[in-house]
Specification:
This protein is α+β, with helices and mostly antiparallel strands. It is built from three helices and four strands, in the order βαββααβ. A four-stranded antiparallel sheet has the order 2-3-1-4, covered by helices on one side. The two termini are 16 Å apart.
């Protein structure tokens, strides 16, 4: 199943995101369940959140992936929402 992870960073947390980015990208590569991903951008063009499409067995697997993400471990996110997502185009 596909799950959309929609996360918003805590205000003023760009330095946390930048410091943790390499570990996050390594985690993405190592787990092999990310179909597509990218940061949300503020009006100033700075990264301020994430949209990640996971291809996982079930919602429990998505929750575990989200919990173990280095961004989450570093306390980057103000909020995280996981929703089942259906790919229609692309």
């Amino acid at each position: 199943m596909r799950v959309a992870l929609i996360a918003h960073d805590k205000p003023g947390a760009l330095a946390v995101r930048q410091a943790t980015r390499a570990a996050h990208l390594d985690y993405v590569a190592a787990t092999g369940v990310v179909e597509m991903a990218g940061p949300f951008l503020s009006p100033e063009g700075e990264m301020c959140g994430s949209l990640i499409i996971l291809d996982v067995a079930d919602m429990a697997a998505a929750q575990a992936w989200a919990k173990d993400d280095p961004y989450a471990q570093a306390g980057l996110f103000e909020s995280v929402r996981l929703m089942e997502w259906k790919k229609v185009i692309g």
